[in-house]
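Write out this protein's structure.
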Amino acid sequence: MSILLLPARTARKGPWSNVRSAHWRPLLIPTVINPHPQRHRYFSSSPSTYSNSNFDPKVPLDESRWSDVKSSVLVLLSVCTAILLPTKAVSCDDPKTQPPTKKPVLELKVDPRDPKEQEKEIQNEKDKDTIKLPGPLPDIPIPKLSLDGLMEKVHDLSEKIGEEIKGRVPTLADYFTAVDAVRKELQLGDGSLYQSIVNNMSDANKNPEIQLDASVRQGNDLCPQELAFQAARRKKMKKAFAKFIGVKESDIHESDIPIVALAGSGGGYRAMISSLGYMTAAKKAGLFDCTMYMAGVSGSCWMIAQYLTLGQRSFTKTMEHFKQSLSTPIAHYPSFIDTMLTNPGAAQLILEGIVQKYSMNRVLTLVDAFGTVLASRLLIHREQDGDNGEWVDPLDFKMSQQSRWVNYGDQPLPIYTAVSHVLPGATSQPDPIEEIIVDDEVAKEDSDEHYYQWFEMTPYEFGSEETSAWIPTWSFGRRFVEGKSVEKVPETNLAILLGTFGSAFTATLADYYNEVRPLLNKAMSDSMDTYIKEYLDGMSLIHPLSPSCFPNPIYKLPNPEPEAEAFSQRKNIYLNDAGMDNNLPLYPLLRPGRKIDVILAFDSSADIESVPWFEKADEYVKRRGIERWPPISKTRAEQLAKQEGGPPRKMTHVEIFHGIVADDRDADHVIPVEKKRTDDSPPPKTVTSLQKSNAQPITLIYFPLIPNQEYHDLNPGTEAFCSTFNFELKEDQVELLAGLGENNFSRGLEDVRKVLKETWLRKKQERLEREKLEKKNRKNPVSAAGSSASSTPGKTDFSKQK
């Protein structure tokens, strides 16, 4: 057992007293001895030969990159001041200290050239970046807005902003104090929040990970920490599983317990809330305590992160947090400013991620800003009665610290996902036109293939099965060269990660068009299709908004896997919302070492009747050579062919697809156990191609978020508050949406129970037959080899799980 000692943090008085007292408790990382030696290198804590030359908090900061931010905020403050105090004599500064001539922040200049020349020059500039089309585009009505109309809208918005800020300060003096505080922060000088964050980056008491070196671990075996987690979790699941399927605990052998994973889809707040409802129902039914993993995409990642942090591992508390926090939109920056001024401790943790990236000269994107604002909504607890104000736990902003709740098997292991857009045949030269194409690569003209490479992050490791390379989660965000970290900087802040996991707005032009197309009338959409179809492939390579950027952990990695060879030549990786490829986190759950038997997929996608997630999963398993995946696409196609009335395929609240299809049951449902055999009798013997290859079959239980008339007349596909891009929900809407997920799960509960019991009986039978064979071989070692060779095919070897 290895122990990482984290120094204690003492509480302080003063402006940081709002930060809840949190001590750096010893972080125990249990490890197990792997009986099968692994063929890869582990990360070590030995001193590195590299030095952290990229970061020095004492070096004077280059403020040029902040000039635009300063100007924008100062303009905002000036507008607010003008609204609240519309007299020219009002000023936040002492007139005596002001310079005699002070230029305005923004100045409207008149171009002396002829208007026709100006228009011609503008058109020439546009033509440089315009895609040439073969003919005239169809006439599309574009609403025109005059300058007066635009200024009127800006004025209306300014009035609303002013009223919001005015309502948050009791007196005029307090307002000026707030303005001065914001200006002080913008100066980035001593005593500012920015400087405090930069100074803390070198504080080992607050960031103990900066004392450690990190190395890349190569290979696709699970890390020792996850193996230890699996062993601990099985012990915790034994009693709960016996109760769930209705047998005695003494009848359960740990190796027979099915490995169950919960998979939540993407879909913004809709997915975040409905996934909470599904998992709440699973917890009430006793299934959650029988679960080994919980994985998410986008909004479901947000839910899992809040459950393990502010929710305090309680779905009830997480629900209360949602109801208190989601009624204010994330774009409501007056409340963000209020938090910064009244609770500097919370503000520091929220801003920590983006400030750290800036101070280390990392590439900043809109995703980082989005994650920062999102964290101000999701990662700050607000007491309902207001007595205790706002509080945050500093440990909650470190992904690696979630290991506190899973090391000993108390919770399922969380798996967060993201993807990188891979362009085969790309060169290593940076794109000269800023960062339109992802991965700082330029696609060759003859490249007609591209795909998304999946990355996963747990409290233990970050990496990708396709690159066969992994790093400790606490080292994500560092620069690596040749498999070793070359700097010691703090772990990437959770706010930045939440923005990355949910960065759906960094989609490609093709994705944007596919989103907008359903909103057009048929004549317009057909006309647009005629012109855009020819360029759709090229549009699939272009991201108008750059994804989140991080240093590439496998940069110049020695002896990389063939699939990672080109990837290892890139200094940076750009990560997107995983929903751009598949809105269900199925791929990380197919890792052989996890040996998952049953996946419960909670799908809250938009246009759920036509989603292609299973077809994409089929493509993935073919590319990776995975044999145990159910033939879902084929089954659904057959169902649609038999369906009266044609497409779309009619959906039910639960659908079950088996990776092993017996001769006496269909692939899309389960025959009740009592009709087939007694509870204690073994399942029917059937030898399939999956069994012959000794591959463990996977059963997928699919829960689509569709209307439930028995619960409420709610259709998530048509309700405006259920939109993926809606970030403001009332308390009753939160309860309604979570309740739909909870009730939909209840309709499939008994099917789930039957599947798990059936899987348990199959694994139990295989274990007993294997033990019988081993006992026979011990008695007659001479014929052991022959007996093993002539044994019944399809007996999966579970000995490695013991």
